Amino acid sequence: RGGWGGGGGSRTSERAGMAECGACARPRREARRDCLPLCEACGERFDRRAPDEFFLAAYAAPAFVLRARGAVLEPLLEPLMLPAPRGPPSKASADEVLRPLLALDGASPPPPLLVLLGSGASAAYGVRPNYGPGDAEGDASLGVNERYWRVLKDSAAAATSGTPDACFYSRLGAFLRARKGASACIATTNIDGLAGRWLDAGGAPCTALELHGSVLRLQCATRGAPCCDSVRPTPLEDVAASTSASECEWSCETCGGRMRLNVSSFDDEPGDVLDVEDVQERLQAFAGDHLLRGGDGPSTPTLHVLVVGCGEHVHSLVHEARAVACERALAGLGTRVVCVNPCDAGARAFGEGCLQVGATAEELGLAMVRAVEGV
Fold first, then answer.
1. Residues 6+ apart with CB under 8 A from 223
2. How many Å is the Cα radius of gyration of the chain?
3. Coiled-coil region(s) at which residues (predicted)?
4. 86: which residues sit within 8 A by CB, 6+ positions away?
5. Is the dihedral of CA 251, 220, 218, 5 positive or negative?
6. Strands 213-220 and 232-233
7. DSSP string, 249-269
8. Per-residue model confidence as pLDDT tens digits over 273-285
9. Contact 216, 197 (CB under 8 A)
10. Which of 255, 250, 256 is nearest to 234 (CA)?
């Protein structure tokens, strides 16, 4: 399954696959998982390979792009070769990139905006990425294992502490509200549920599309035919009191069966994870309206893609954003990509033409407050 949230559809070309790991000198596909350190800010692995060699990889075409075109799903199995980036990205400040998104000059309405949120967007709230050295393998359908339990503990603590209106997500919501109805879509692969919980605090005109689901929701664990009315909030008080994953088990109120996190995993079949397919369809609807629309002539607005806290790991939304930019370029449509990350991860995937903002999500949120106050 490729595309947004599918996880299993990405693949690596022979050249990229044979590149040596910078830490253990083994071929990349044989490298140890724990040999590359993680950036504490964004969860990205540091890598010493040449950028062109690292990014010359084939990724499955995003499912939402193909469906928006009315294409069949078989092409998902074929690799989509994306060109290697050329030149370094351009540096910019957060204030510089936010002004056009509010159209402060008044000459035109704010442009359509696609916001892609990675693990760095939640880093300031103590939520660690659900991958990394020493993580337990497994999937959510087998119960709340140690890896998901760790994310669940972090998310529960973040969701029940602090001031919602002072966090990045609520500030993002207020910024989108200041765009006065301009088209926007927010998508995240984070499973911490914080974007969905706090965007409303800022009055966001749209909800976050949680492409992999959320640990803050539970559902019936019946494979293939879960109870449709079983989705309910995760009891955060139980999570806070737990000391191991085995203490976080609940029963379905409808059928009495075991509950699982409402999070997609690699071995899930269609229909196993409630609401996730509906989220995919909503993103595809946005894609049909803005990502692949053509024929409007030179007046067609440039799509702005704001990538926040995304690294370059294989399932990062950075790769999806690259595919979007390439697809629109082939259709003669403009795309402006802005990568916000304290390190250069993410922006390197685009090279020249991308604006790189060296800031954390928290710093971006403060810049959004300044921009809104200046409207």
1. 141, 269, 272
2. 20
3. none
4. 351, 352
5. positive
6. antiparallel
7. --B-TTT--BEEEEE--TTPP
8. 888 777 877 777 7
9. yes
10. 250
Q: Are strands 355-357 and 90-91 parallel, antiparallel or unpaired?
A: parallel
Domains and CATH numbers, the chain: 14-373 (3.40.50.1220)
Q: Is residue 66 within 8 Å of residue 288, measured between CB atoms? A: no
Residue 27 per-residue DSSP state:
B
Q: Tens digit of pLDDT for each residue in 181-231?
A: 788 889 998 989 999 888 877 788 888 889 888 999 999 887 766 787 778
| Cβ neighbours of residue 299 closer than 8 Å, sequence gap 6 or more | none
- Amino acid identity of 224? G
Q: Which of 133, 361, 144 lies closest to 265, judged by CA?
A: 144
Assigned token pair, 253: 């109120």
CB atoms within 10 A of CB 178: 19
> Quick count: other Cβ atoms within 10 Å of Cβ 357?
26
The secondary element (H helix, E strand) that includes residue 115 is: strand 113-117
* Residue 244, both tokens: 């191991």
Burial of 83 (0-12, 13-18, 19+ CB in 10 A): exposed
φ, ψ of residue 246 in degrees (nearest 5) = -65, -20
Alpha-carbon span 277 to 335, nearest angstrom: 27
**How many secondary structure helices (H) and strands (E) does the chain include?**
11, 12
Assigned token pair, 279: 């989220």
Could you tell me what percent of the chain has a pLDDT over 70? 65
Place of tokens 């690259």: 322
Which stretches of 199-332 are DSSP H helices?
A: 236-241, 276-286, 317-330
Question: 232: which 2 tokens?
Answer: 């309910």
**pTM for this model (two decimals):** 0.75
pLDDT in tens, 103-140: 766 667 888 899 999 888 988 788 876 654 334 344 44
**Closest among 257, 186, 271 to 224, alpha carbons compared:** 271
